[in-house]
Amino acid sequence: KIGFDALAEAVPDLPPPPRGDLQGPDECVREMSAAGFHDVLARPFSASIHVQSAEQYVRLMDTAAPFAMLQRKLGEQAWPAVAGRILDAVRRRLPGPADLVAEAIMTAGSR
Q1: Which residues face 51 on adjacent strands?
Q2: Full DSSP string of 4-38
Q3: Measured distance CA(59)–CA(36) in Å, rounded
Q4: Which one, of 96, 91, 93, 99, lies nearest residue 46 by Cα?
Q5: What pTM does this model have?
Q6: What pLDDT score was predicted for residue 3?
Q7: What is the pLDDT averaged over residues 5-22?
């Protein structure tokens, strides 16, 4: 959330990322079952990462697909200014070391 909020602040003309259809366990079970899987189970999963600084967080973000695609779209000349605005926005949200939690839905089934 920090990264996408910082990106939206740094590049306000960007459309917000679309919300995917697989936002809840029930949707995940339905989609896999419709694809022919049985005994489908979906469970929330959390993972955390410790970051020392906003700079470290931004270095991690640089490899994420949305940021890499934006960097490619904007080009080498425009990117440094945008990257600076992203870093400033992340610093406001992440003033020091922090443990960040990401949540996902792990879904498995048999075919």
Answers
A1: 98
A2: HHHHHHHSTTSPPPPPPS--SHHHHHHHHHHTT-E
A3: 40
A4: 99
A5: 0.74
A6: 86
A7: 80
